[in-house]
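Chapter summary example.
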Amino acid sequence: MKKLISLFTTLCIVFGVFGAFTVFAEDTDITEISTLAQLEAFRDDVNSGNTYEGKTVRLTADIDMSEKYGEGRESWTPIDTFAGTFDGNNHIISGFYAYTEEEYGFASFFNMVTGTLKNLNVEGVVIGNHPYDCAVAGIARCLGANAQMLNCLFEGTVKNPNYVAGGLVSDNGGLISGCRFKGEVVY
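The structure predicted for these 187 residues follows.
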């Protein structure tokens, strides 16, 4: 009986330790987002300096932004420098609205991406007021040299009355594959 209890205790310790380690690793490497509040918290975390390098962010539901963001309401502040993988999981972010009146202000869903964006679908309006290239875009203002945008879609309107605007990206130094833009670009 002592041997059986000892074996059982040993197995519990071994499986408990390894099981806890596996769960811990999964929890720290993947962030799941299903609400606008969670999306905003993620954006604020990135904008405070967390680049999410080596981590994955995954949408688990469609998100409608239209009740908070839009003309006469708030404008989306772009997600700044993102170095991880953002998997839209083929969900739709609708009602997206980014606008800047600042002469050198940026308007987009992401500002700078050095990681990977994939399966991200955004529907909305982006309006900028920047006199130079690379400032206004539907999904990402800038893709860095090693960045990737895979199977993404922006549907809507992108405007920059002073200069160039990009339907998906304004400044691309990376790879764009399988992506589409559906709508109007005005500059």
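To summarize the output: Residues 20 and 122 are 36 Å apart (CA to CA).
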